[in-house]
Each structure stands twice: as structure tokens, then as C-alpha cells.
Amino acid sequence: MEVHYLTQEHQVAIINCIRHLSNVLPDKHFENHLEIVLSKLQEVYETINILTDGIHTLNNNVERLRNAQSGRQTSIYSPPFYSSPTGYKMCARLHLNGDGDGQGTHMSLFFILMKGKYDDILGWPFNSRIIFSLYDQTDKKQHIFDTFQPDIIPNSCQRPHTDTNIVSGIPKFIPLAIIEQENNHYVQEDAIFIKIMVDFN
């Protein structure tokens, strides 16, 4: 299982980015450096995403579920993240009111490979197991896990030639009855936490 942690490489990358930004921000010609600043901010953003180990927070859960049920917003995308410091770029797509076989009965969760900066040095097609986890936010820590092997078909796990590949995942990830139950362990203060892991073993 991949474990992401603050390596010396990460520390140096963040420190270098912050030093560069601190040198540029006081500059009265800041607009001339805007492209460089945005590039450096993207580096910091991607590094921090690696360090968070694929944990994504979904706030305003009740309102989002109502929007999904009414059809106003049927799906939500996570921010992009990398499987490791020089790994695969990916994101997740969540359907709070379900999709396909899970529509109206389950939350559906899907995995999407994205075009990344390290694709030239990675193995293709992508064939590692994906693990989704819905966090129990109480002391019981009875997290719910589900796994799947992405479909090794064109436009799903092959090297991306556009910004994103087609999705693959679990249409029946979590029954809505669990999420909608009062005082359940998984929705606290109108927020849920979902962790996405890649098993390279």
C-alpha cells in the first residue's frame, strides 16, 4: 500500500516555492511574474494533496444530497491528486444520490485517471487496485471499505490522451439509508470524509 508522508523532497519543494513567492510578492511589477507565481502555487497545491493521502472532505452534505435528488447537481468532483510524488494523477467523482445501478439507493463513487506530468515514466495501462473508504468520525472508527480493480479498457486505464479518462468505480458504494440515518457515524456536523488509496502490491 502506498503511504504518503513528508519526505525531505517534499520539504525542499515547499520551502523553495515559498521562498520564491516571498521574493516576488513585494515586487511592484508583480503582474510580470503572475505566470510564475501561479505555476509555483500549483506545485505547492499538488504537493499538499500528496501529503493528505487522498483524504477528501465533503461539507454541506445535506444540501448537496438535496441538490443531487432534485437533479440540480448530480455529481461532485474531488480536487486532482497524485498517487505518489512522481505517480499517477487522478481524481474522484461522487454521486450522492447514486448513478446507474445505484441511483436513488446508494452513493456512487468513481475513479478517474488524468493526464499528469509524470506519465512518461509510468507503466501503462494502469492496473492497480483502488480502495475507497468512508470514515467513521466517532471513536469506534468503523470505517467502511470497498475495493475494485479498474477496467483495463481503452479510455479508462490507458495513458490519458485528453485531460481525463472515462470513469470506473463502484455504483453501489454506500447505501443511502446509512447516510440518511440520524446520528450515524459517518456524517458529523454536515460533513463526510472519503479516503482514496492505491494498492500497488
Automatic annotation (TrEMBL):
Taxonomic lineage: Eukaryota, Metazoa, Spiralia, Gnathifera, Rotifera
Domain (MATH) ranges: 55-198
GO terms, biological process: regulation of canonical NF-kappaB signal transduction
Identification of the protein by name: MATH domain-containing protein
InterPro entries assigned: MATH/TRAF_dom, TRAF-like, TRAF1-6_MATH_dom
UniProt cross-references to Pfam families, sorted A to Z: TRAF-mep_MATH
Origin species: Rotaria sordida
